[in-house]
Amino acid sequence: MRGGTDVKLPKFLTSKKALINTKFRNENKTDNQCFKWCIARALNPVKDHPERITGKLEEQAETLNFKNISFPVKLRDINKVVIQNPNISVNVLGYDDDDKKKIIYPLRISEMDKRLHEVNLLMLEDKHYVLINSMSRLLTRQKTKHTKKDISV
Predict the structure, then answer these.
(1) DSSP 52-118
(2) Range of 72's domain?
């Protein structure tokens, strides 16, 4: 699995108001570094337009170590990023949109959970990362197979 290009979020996910889908202010500018922008935004939150990749966010992203990391970032390469950046841990969830069920499930749970910053990402279409800024809103009303109770975070 690889993360990359700009992807429009499904209505089901946007309605939850739990995600930040980073994008350049200039719509003509694109890259495959959504993973990097999500990590930088998680570490440098802003109130207004958190989805925008600004010059300031680009500067803040330069403080992170992505040496020898290829973009788009493959799921298996996230551990390299975590090792190179000892203050962060990264969890990645996936999303399936069946005809009747919409399921959010874990793809990667960090073993390094005693870090200063824990970043939660959602991977869409096996190619695009978005930042989860509210896990509880994202998982509201999702049922477990065993008890049919809401998952609480």
Answers:
(1) EE-HHHHHHHTTS--TT--SSPBGGGHHHHHHHSTTEEEEEEEEEE-SS-EEEEEEE--S--SSSEE
(2) 11-139
